Amino acid sequence: MATEIRVPTLGESVTEATIGRWFKHAGDAVAADEPLVELETDKVTIEVPAPTAGVLAEILVKDGDTVAPGALLGQINEGAAPPKSAPAAKADKPAAPPPPPPPAPAPAAAPRGSEMPLAPSVRRLAAESGIDVAGVTPTGKDGRLTKGDMLNAIERAAAAPTPVDQPSAPRMARAPSAPDDAAREERVRMTKLRQTIARRLKDAQNTAAMLTTFNEVDMSQVMGLRKEYRDLFEKKHGVRLGFMGFFVRACVQALKELPAVNAEIDGTDIIYKNYYHVGVAVGTDRGLVVPVVRDADTLSLAAIEKKIADFGHRAREGTLKIEDLQGGTFTITNGGIYGSLMSTPILNAPQSGILGMHKIQDRPMAVGAEIKVRPMMYLAVSYDHRIVDGREAVTFLVRVKESLEDPTRLILDL
What is the pLDDT of residue 85? Predict the structure, then answer.
């Protein structure tokens, strides 16, 4: 009995992964739950375990291939012997040669892969891309059309300029560098992960009607609280009192008042999320990942800080799980830790809002009739204007500002 090995669910808005490496070869014996293949996404690296014990009978994708959730990676024969022994057993049978002639027509029909039964993944890709399978050359066993064949055809179609593009926006070749400069240049091919990140960010810009509004917040009160209670907080809860917990709490209160910022568009419907799963962007060597603080409205400030600290540690160690990255309804990103003074964050699709934190900088501010130096931070909220009106976005940011400038509001839920 053959058991299929398939790509698991990859996470929120993650539509593909790259085959990193296979730990086993075809014909190797495998144990149940033993890691078989490593998948890399723009979020995390995961290992796909063997669904059952047996022999790895077939590997259908190779290292470097791109696969989608649910794609067939290979098959395991439960309790079967390695396929290498099969030819030896058949070699002793004199009747073995006659069977090959009848199947002889099959190779002749191999180029007509589109006439053979199509795998569900192939049919889905054909329907989504609009590519005629009859024009795709099959490379699978017995002339079958594989998912890899369809993905390659889609890539070629995407790379080919359309008639509309040719006259108006011809692709310009890169001008050659001067010989002295060329000798000091280094050309490195983008990894598939970086290409995926680039494509997803661009897709978010192309899909959403994205707009950003700004405000600034006086961080004096929050910084005063941290200074006064930092040691006591850490001693009692075993975690540092940071800024992010205050921002998560402030955003949740604002999201309750402005539900559109916590919603998403699904076709012609708007889905209002009556829960608050806040994604917190964390920097790693591989790039940003966004683990999700689930049900943040039910958590104390200490519980939020503990979750964020744990996410940060596991993100840097590369041990985040897929479920840690799923289900976010709103995202917070902090460019201030890198020194950013102001930026326009890009939406984490399909979410409708993202808050950008920035560097705290002392600036002279008019306080009453006096000029005083205050620790100020610029805030930016990018939003999908298809669902969030300007009034709602500005009000959201004002509510966040009010909560941070008077943290008592967070305690009294005002």
Answer: 46
Q: pTM of whole model > 0.85?
A: no
Q: Are residues 130 and 77 in the same domain?
A: no
Give the least confident one: 22-36, 171-185, 264-278: 171-185
Tell me if residue 111 falls in helix, strand or coil.
Answer: coil
Q: Which of 64, 92, 120 is the last residue of a domain?
A: 92
Which of the pair, 152 or 136, is modelled with greater confidence?
A: 136
Question: Which CB contacts under 8 angstroms, 24+ apart, belong to 389-395?
Answer: 389/260, 390/211, 390/213, 392/258, 392/260, 392/261, 393/211, 393/213, 393/261, 393/353, 394/213, 394/215, 395/257, 395/258
25, 158: one domain: no
- Give pLDDT, residue 105: 46
Q: What's residue 325's pLDDT?
A: 84
Non-local CB neighbours of 156 within 8 Å, separated by 6+ positions: none
Q: Tell me whether residue 191 is in a domain.
A: no
The verdict on 88 and 113 lying in the same domain is: no
Note the pLDDT tens digit of each residue in 241-288: 999 999 999 999 999 999 999 999 988 889 999 999 999 988 777 777
- Considering the domain architecture, whether residues 318 and 217 belong to the same structural domain is answered as yes
Q: Catalytic residue at 63?
A: no
In-domain check, residue 171: no
Cβ atoms of 200 and 349 within 8 Å: the answer is yes
- Of these residues, 203, 389, 406, 413, which one is catalytic? 389
Give CA separation, 11 vs 14, 47, 101, 145, 354, in Å: 5, 14, 48, 28, 18
**By the 8 A CB rule, do 373 and 356 touch?**
no
Q: Is 102 within the bounds of a domain?
A: no
* Dist CA 5 CA 24 (whole Å): 13
385 carries an active-site annotation: yes
Domain that holds residue 283: 196-412
In a domain, 119, yes or no: yes
Of 47-51, 75-79, 108-112, the least confident: 108-112
Same domain, 75 and 121: no
Residue 3 DSSP code: E
DSSP state of 142: G
Mean pLDDT check: name the lowest of 27-41, 186-200, 203-217: 186-200
User: Does residue 278 share a domain with residue 205?
Assistant: yes
Instruction: Tell me how crowded residue 20 is: count the other CB atoms within 10 A of its CB.
Output: 17
Q: Which of 28, 297, 310, 385 is catalytic?
A: 385
Average of per-residue pLDDT values in the chain: 81
135 and 229 assigned to the same domain? no
- Give the pairing of strands 330-334 and 353-357: parallel
